[in-house]
Amino acid sequence: MPKWLNDAVFYEIYPQSFYDSNGDGIGDINGIIQKLDYVKGLGCNAIWLNPVYDSPFMDAGYDVRDYYKVAPRYGTNEDLVRLFEAAHRKGMKILLDLVPGHTSDTHPWFQIAKRARETDLSNRYIFTKSVWDAPPEYRLMCGICERNGNYLVNYFSSQPALNYGFYEITHPEWQLPPDHPDCLRTAEAIRAVMRFWLDKGADGFRVDMADSLVKNDDEKIATAKIWRRVREMLDADYPEAAMVSEWCHPDRAITNAGFHMDFYLDHYGNGYNRLFRFGEWGDLAVFNPNGLGDLKGFAEEYLPAYNRTKDKGYISFMTNNHDMPRVTAYLDKQAIKLVNAFIFTMPGVPFLYYGDEIGMRYQADLISKEGGFSRTGSRTPMQWCAGKNLGFSESDHPYLPVDLSDDAPTVENQKDDPDSIYRVVTDLIALRHKYDDLHGNGELEFLYRDDQIPFAYRRGNLTMFFNPLGREATITTDCDGDVIYKIGDATIADGKVLMKPQSFLLVG
Question: Within this chain, do residues 450 and 414 fall inside the same structural domain, yes or no?
Fold first, then answer.
């Protein structure tokens, strides 16, 4: 296990929307290099970089055309190496985004595989036996290739699924087992991509759709075996490299598959969702001040998973990511401050999505950009300062429009505001680094009865008290420490914590 993860705080950068250094309207690698001091100033010592590989951008880069080449709009391979080197000089790590489940339909592998003539890449993707063979239980593209067959896609029609085999074979005329030599070669091809970038200075990978590899693998047994082989490679050759999975199943991802971290994602009705987004635009969320949230629904899912995996890896909370509406669409400013207090004082390795530190808004109803659809409103340019495109770009045609509201938050107007989300985020990250009890592997004890809110939890010698309600509340406690940090108005005395509406208290 890489030791640096225990005190890591990640910043997710959507590269096309972060900072445009050359005026073409699209963020780029040199722009990220120029802003590394800003990221480090937040307290973030690691970055997750969304895909920067060559792509036709039908899905914003998650449709890879060449795993070994940086997309020209972002720069060059040499620019990416310079980013690694610049980050390392500042004591920061960089995780690339790995997309192992599919490629673009313009990838050279697929261009060869779809030919009628059989080649050594014919089984790199999954084709049915004939164009008339289209089982309805699979997502297939039908009748558009020279080859007499239809191919499986992992999501969009332009994303043919790579072939790692089928755990349960239901159509033996075209499905291969995971241990078939061609399926093993697919896994080796992805490991080769990882080695290429690790050798150039990458510090690991966030793995897109990590559970999607082997098909008909409901329990993910064969898929986990592939990732355990990757973990063995890392442990042997790159022991400081880290992997975080897009899985949202810690037992499978961490315990079975060997990932160092697993994202706690926003699936409707799960524990993450119940905390921040549940109901009609968050009206049933724990952090909604109306008091209709269900803490028990979160705890009964999260705590068993945490206890089973805490000695093997980290469950990673995120403020948001590129695939879900920003939390500003659901909760008010004071609630968002408490959300950040929760995320940055819980165990695991937290991830801060670019712009969340200033309370950037989700821009609903934007026209879809590069396969974004409803996600497009969370991918708008970073808002740096007053002026053209709020400091993102000098172009007249930026990648997406910035927030045009008169009160649009920017780094410039938020960083010195004592009442800002920025101040809360940076304060909390600094406290996380300062206190060992707040590091990733610190202990956790939830202090609650049934589903009651307000609530509290203890981590070592520190206790966190939360009142997300829109009314005053009192918590009885045996904690007798000093107040280290608070949000809103809260006091502790004589075994009682008196909490005004939407307040937080850190005591130790």
Answer: no
